[in-house]
C-alpha cells in the first residue's frame, strides 16, 4: 500500500497546486495513508492536500482534513518540529468567515487555538494580529479590524511565518479601502502598482479588489486602467474575482463578463453531481450577485435571452446553452439574497447585503 501511496504522490507532483487533479490524487493518497495508520505519511500527504485544496478552490476539503492533522500532531508531538502546520493554519483560519454556516464562536475559537499554538512554539503575535484584522474585516467588523491591524504594527514578525511583503501591503490596501479613503488606499498600493512587490496572488488580487471602490468613486478612467492591468495578469488558473466582472457589466462588455463567469461555473449544481459542493461560500454569493447584476443590465437593455455555457450539472442546465434572462435573473437573485441573509445573520450586521446595494449603484 505504501508503494501505491508513493506513486500517487509522484503523480500529484506533476501538477500545480491550482490544478483540481492534484487535489483529487492527494485525496486518494491521504485515504490510503489513513488506512495504513502511518502517522508521518498522513501528516506528509495531508499537509500537501491542505495546500492543494486551498489553491484549487476546494476549501471544504481543507476544512475537513485540517482538524484531523491537528489532532494527529496533538497525539504525536514528536512530529511537531517537522509538521507544525502553523503556516497552513493561517490559510485555514482566513477562510473560515467565507462560509456562513461556520459561526463566529467557531471562528474565534479557531483563532484562539491558533494563537496558543503560535505562542507555545515561541512565535510573535504579529501574524496573529494581522490575521485577526483580516478576519474581522471579512466579518464586517471594521473598527475591530483597524484595532488589530494597529496592534500588529507594534510587534516584530517571524520571518518563517510572516506573509510576503506583497501580501502584507495588499491586506493594508483592502483595509484602507474599507476603513479609510480610496486615496489613502491607492497611495498604499503604489509599490504594488509599480511592480516593487509581487507574488502569486499580487498584483492580480489588488487590481480586482480596488476596482469596485474606484467605480464607486465614479473614477471610470482609473477603473479602466485597473481593469486593463488586471487582464494582463489574469490567467486561466485565476480564481473568481467579482470586481472585474462588475466593471464589464457596468461598461456593457457583456461577453467579457460572461467569459469570466463561465470559467467559474462549477456552482449551483445538482446534488447528484460529482462536483457538487453542499456548503455555499462567499464565492457563491459573488457568483450569484454577478449573474443577477448581469441579467438585470441585460433586462434593462430589452434583451430576452442569453447564451451561457454552464457546468453540465447546473441545476437549470440546457444543452443548447440558451437561457431566458428572466429565469436566470430570478434564480440568481434568490440565491444571492438567501446567502446575503445567511451571512448577515452570522455576522450580526448588514455588511454583505450592503454590497448588493453598492453593486446596483455603480
Short description:
The chain is mostly helical and 362 residues long.
How would you describe this protein?
It is built from 17 helices and 2 strands. The relative contact order is 0.07. It starts with a helix and ends with a helix. With 362 residues, it is mainly alpha-helical. The chain is 65% helix and 2% strand. It has a two-stranded antiparallel sheet. The mean pLDDT is 93.
Count of helical segments? Answer: 17
Q: Please give the alpha-carbon distance between the first and last residues.
A: 57 Å
What about the largest sheet?
A: 2 strands, antiparallel
Mind telling me the C-alpha Rg? 21 Å
The count of β-strands is 2
Return the structural class: mainly alpha
**What best-fitting shape do the alpha-carbon axes yield?**
globular
| Uncertain ranges | none
Helix content: 55-70%
Secondary-structure element pattern, one letter each = HHHHHHHHHHHHHHHEEHH
**What is the average of the pLDDT values?**
93
Across the major sheet, the strand order is: 1-2
Hey, roughly how much beta strand do the residues contain? under 5%
Amino acid at each position: 500500500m505504501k508503494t501505491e501511496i508513493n506513486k500517487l504522490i509522484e503523480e500529484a507532483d506533476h501538477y500545480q497546486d491550482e490544478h483540481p487533479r492534484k487535489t483529487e490524487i492527494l485525496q486518494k493518497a491521504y485515504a490510503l495513508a489513513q488506512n495504513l495508520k502511518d502517522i508521518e505519511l498522513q501528516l506528509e500527504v495531508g499537509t500537501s492536500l491542505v495546500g492543494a485544496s486551498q489553491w484549487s478552490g476546494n476549501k471544504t476539503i481543507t476544512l475537513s482534513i485540517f482538524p484531523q492533522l491537528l489532532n494527529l500532531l496533538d497525539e504525536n508531538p514528536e512530529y511537531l518540529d517537522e509538521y507544525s502546520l502553523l503556516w497552513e493554519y493561517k490559510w485555514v483560519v482566513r477562510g473560515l468567515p467565507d462560509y456562513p454556516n461556520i459561526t463566529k464562536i467557531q471562528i474565534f475559537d479557531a483563532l484562539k487555538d491558533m494563537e496558543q499554538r503560535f505562542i507555545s512554539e515561541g512565535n510573535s503575535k504579529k501574524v496573529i494580529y494581522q490575521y485577526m484584522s483580516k478576519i474581522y474585516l471579512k466579518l464586517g467588523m471594521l473598527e475591530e479590524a483597524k484595532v488589530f491591524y494597529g496592534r500588529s504594527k507594534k510587534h516584530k514578525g517571524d520571518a518563517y511565518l510572516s506573509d510576503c511583503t506583497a501580501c502584507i501591503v495588499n491586506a493594508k490596501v483592502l483595509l484602507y479601502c474599507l476603513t479609510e479613503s480610496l486615496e489613502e488606499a491607492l497611495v498604499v498600493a503604489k509599490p504594488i502598482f509599480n511592480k516593487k512587490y509581487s507574488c502569486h496572488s499580487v498584483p492580480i488580487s489588488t487590481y480586482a479588489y480596488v476596482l469596485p471602490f474606484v467605480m464607486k468613486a465614479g473614477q471610470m478612467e482609473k477603473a479602466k486602467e485597473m481593469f486593463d492591468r488586471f487582464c494582463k495578469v489574469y490567467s486561466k488558473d485565476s480564481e473568481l474575482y467579482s470586481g472585474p466582472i462588475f466593471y464589464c457589466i457596468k461598461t456593457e462588455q457583456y461577453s467579457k463578463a460572461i467569459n469570466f463567469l463561465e470559467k467559474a461555473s462549477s456552482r449551483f449544481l445538482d446534488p447528484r453531481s460529482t462536483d457538487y459542493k453542499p456548503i455555499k461560500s462567499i464565492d457563491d454569493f459573488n457568483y450569484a450577485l454577478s449573474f443577477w447584476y448581469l441579467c438585470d443590465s441585460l433586462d434593462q437593455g430589452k434583451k430576452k435571452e442569453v447564451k451561457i455555457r454552464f457546468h453540465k450539472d447546473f441545476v437549470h442546465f440546457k444543452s443548447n446553452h440558451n437561457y431566458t434572462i428572466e429565469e436566470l435573473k430570478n434564480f440568481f437573485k434568490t440565491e444571492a439574497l438567501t446567502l446575503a441573509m445567511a451571512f448577515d445573520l452570522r455576522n450580526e450586521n448588514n455588511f454583505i447585503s450592503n454590497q448588493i446595494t453598492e453593486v446596483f449603484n455603480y
